[in-house]
Amino acid sequence: MPCSGPGIRHRGLSRAPVAELASRSGYESEAGFARAFKRVTGESPGSVRRSG
């Protein structure tokens, strides 16, 4: 089962590709992880990464 909201928030964004973060979090696809991340944080993983 994929990580819940708090799991995503505490995981943070490293330099690892989003697909790798998705896999580590239990998601089968990068798209599913990105949707869940945006639902929890209000921003896409790429947007958070770009804002530093």
Fraction of helical residues: 55-70%
Give the ordered list of helices and strands. HHHH
Rg, alpha carbons: 10 Å
Please, how many domains? 1
- Taking the alpha carbons of the first and last residues, their distance comes to 29 Å
Low-confidence stretches: none
The pLDDT mean sits at: 79
Total strands: 0
Please report the number of helical segments. Answer: 4
**Which structural class matches the secondary elements?**
mainly alpha
Form type: globular
The largest β sheet comes out as:
none
Kindly report the oligomeric state of this protein.
single chain
Share in β-strands: under 5%
Word description of this protein:
By secondary structure, the chain is mainly α. It has one domain. Helix content is 63%, strand content 0%. It is built from 4 helices and no strands. The protein has helices at 5-11, 18-24, 30-41, 45-51. Helix 1 (5-11) packs across helix 3 and helix 2 crosses helix 3 (30-41). The chain is globular and about 25 Å long. It starts with a helix and ends with a helix. The relative contact order is 0.20. The mean pLDDT is 79.
